[in-house]
Specification:
Elements (H helix, E strand, L loop, with lengths): L1 E4 L2 E5 L5 E4 L2 E4 L5 E3 L2 E3 L2 H7 L3 E5 L4 E5 L8 H4 L2 H15 L4 H15 L8 H5 L10 H4 L8 H11 L10 E3 L6 H5 L2 E5 L2 E4 L1
Antiparallel strand pairs: 1-2, 2-3, 3-4, 5-6, 7-8, 9-11, 10-11
Helix pairs in contact: 3-4, 3-7, 4-7
């Protein structure tokens, strides 16, 4: 489905966990679904595309949609090229065989670290951080140099745009109980082959 309204182009496809709006990738955790020939898209990413705000009152089961700017900042100016480059490569190296949710989760760990003063203040800096120990093995094994697939680029853009599937997780591991994070950090959840820790 494509919608073109004023200066806004929105695309959505059944089964995807995102929509695009002017080149931005917006997370749609409820998935875009085709039911009886009608494509249903979650309201929150559509509202974000229009620069609007959604308010949900659970006790009355009422949704309020407040007008906003009219359209979202385009992907061409929102995404920093170097951030997409490095984020998509670390996602590919760490989570190539994982679901889209698993790929986004790896990006979430990078973004969560980026927000804390204990970690470097750039995507590149977080990925190549060596304080204490190597944080992301593929950054030093050379695996990060492999070109990422389109799904990893999309996951990177979703994580950079605020998609959140693992809360405040700062660490992940595929070795589970034997890793430092499992012994020292609170467990958050497991997605695919990775366990995530706060």
């Amino acid at each position: 489905m494509k919608i073109l309204a004023s200066d806004l182009l929105i695309t959505a496809s059944a089964g995807d966990c995102f929509i695009t709006a002017n080149g931005r990738y917006l997370y749609a955790p409820g998935l875009c679904r085709m039911i009886n020939g009608v494509l249903y898209v979650p309201l929150r990413p559509l509202a974000k595309a229009y620069g609007s705000v959604v308010l949900w009152l659970s006790y009355t089961k009422t949704v309020f949609l407040f007008p906003g700017s009219g359209s979202i900042e385009p992907g061409g100016t929102f995404y920093k090229e170097s951030d997409v480059y490095w984020m998509s490569r670390i996602i590919s190296a760490e989570a190539r065989g994982e679901s889209m949710t698993g790929k986004i989760a790896v990006g979430n760990v990078v973004m969560n670290r980026l927000r804390l003063p204990a970690f470097p203040d750039s995507v590149y800096g977080v990925i190549f951080d060596r304080r204490g120990a190597v944080q992301f093995t593929p950054a030093y094994s050379g695996a990060i140099n492999a070109a990422p697939g389109q799904d990893c680029v999309i996951a990177a853009k979703l994580a950079l745009d605020g998609a959140d599937v693992v809360g405040g997780s700062l660490f992940f591991s595929s070795s589970h109980a034997g890793c430092w994070a499992a012994r020292n950090r609170p467990f958050v959840k497991t997605i695919g082959n990775h366990s995530f820790y706060g």
